[in-house]
Protein: Dihydropteroate synthase
Organism: Candidatus Blautia gallistercoris
Amino acid sequence: QEYKAMVWLIEEIQKVTEKPICIDSPNARLLARIIEEGHLHRPGIVNSVNEEGDKCEMIFPLLAETQWEVIGLTCDDQGIPEDPEKKIAIARTIIQKSDFYGVARERLHIDPCVMALAAVPSAMKDFEKVICEIHDFAPEVKITGAISNISYDMPARKYVNICCMAYAIHEGLDSAIMDPLDGDLMSSIYACEALCMKDRGGRKYNKAYRRGKIGTNRREDWKMKI
């Protein structure tokens, strides 16, 4: 059922856009089958591999010498560790395997599996530590993350998410797994990238304002242009 649903959804999406598609499943065999059968018109992103079982060994050989990108989660057969040092160790192993199988580091996105602040008070500091250390030993590798995980079971979650995004961008976050139609979170990204000199002179920030994406000038119709 999952295979049929994924193939159908891929076909429907490709009818209306040429954007790369992220195929997402905990079932590595399913992801491998989708890639091997060539259902996608262009390379996208595989979400995901990790150190559970032989997922890296199954997926990485299929991506070598291609333009496919892949997300690597910092978890293993024991689950998601709270200890940031263990996450960093898992990330190192995934990166080493990507090197071995010929997957360019520039096409690897490590997801440090952000913990919930309500359960792990040091969640933000731990996230920052993992971002910094991975970029120290593998600057070509990109860091991503599901930002809203940190606000789980917290009131007024959007404020926690916005602050998490700001801190993470400052430390080197390259992308985020998030809702791009969340105007408040997108506004914080534009502002943070300008402040951190990722957007020199705030050109993208100003362009977003003029297009009505952020601030009091924000319009709802821009969402249809993504």
